[in-house]
Amino acid sequence: MSKEKVLTMMGFGEKSKKIVSGEMGCRIAIQKKKAKLLIIAEDAAESTKKKFEELAIHHQVPQMFFGQKEILGAAIGKSSRSLIVISDDGLAETIEQLLETSIKE
């Protein structure tokens, strides 16, 4: 159930312009310190995972692995996405809590 809620929250975030997706957009958001949470697709390329994990650690951005590229893209009304950045504190906190809850289930 929590996974569906996470995807719904991502859709709301996209509509309210609180989400950035794709490698270039996510890199810029992280570097400009606008990123509050980085979500990496579980089926993202290993090189992408490594590159963005290191970038997020360097800029002190929390990161989580969730879903597949197709599902993440569909949640925000776009084609498949390996990376999503949440740029709003409240939305990032809500999604992080939902993801932690879904991991425990």
In brief:
With 105 residues, the protein is an alpha+beta fold. It is built from 5 helices and 4 strands. The protein has one domain: Ribosomal protein L30/S12 (60s Ribosomal Protein L30, Chain: A), CATH 3.30.1330.
Report on the structure:
The protein is of the alpha+beta class. The chain has one domain (2-104): Ribosomal protein L30/S12 (60s Ribosomal Protein L30, Chain: A), CATH 3.30.1330.30. The protein contains 5 helices and 4 strands; from the N terminus they run H-E-H-E-H-E-H-E-H. Helix 3 links the parallel strand 2 and strand 3 (63-65). Helix 1 packs antiparallel against helix 5 (89-104) and helix 2 packs parallel to helix 3 (46-58). The chain starts with a helix and ends with a helix.
Mean pLDDT rating: 92
Cα end-to-end separation: 9 Å
- What is the ordering of alpha helices and beta strands? HEHEHEHEH
Q: Kindly state the percentage of residues in helix.
A: 55-70%
Name the beta content range: 5-15%
Task: Give the overall form.
Answer: globular
Structural class, judged by helices and strands?
A: alpha+beta
Largest sheet strand order: 1-4-2-3
CATH superfamily: Ribosomal protein L30/S12
Give the CATH level 1 class. Answer: Alpha Beta
CATH domain fold name? 60s Ribosomal Protein L30, Chain: A
State the helix count.
5
What is the rounded Rg? 12 Å
Which stretches are poorly predicted, pLDDT < 50 over at least 5 residues? Answer: none
Helices and strands in order:
Layout: H1 2-15, E1 19-21, H2 23-31, E2 37-40, H3 46-58, E3 63-65, H4 69-75, E4 83-86, H5 89-104
Parallel strand pairs: 2-3
Antiparallel strand pairs: 1-4, 2-4
Helix pairs in contact: 1-5, 2-3
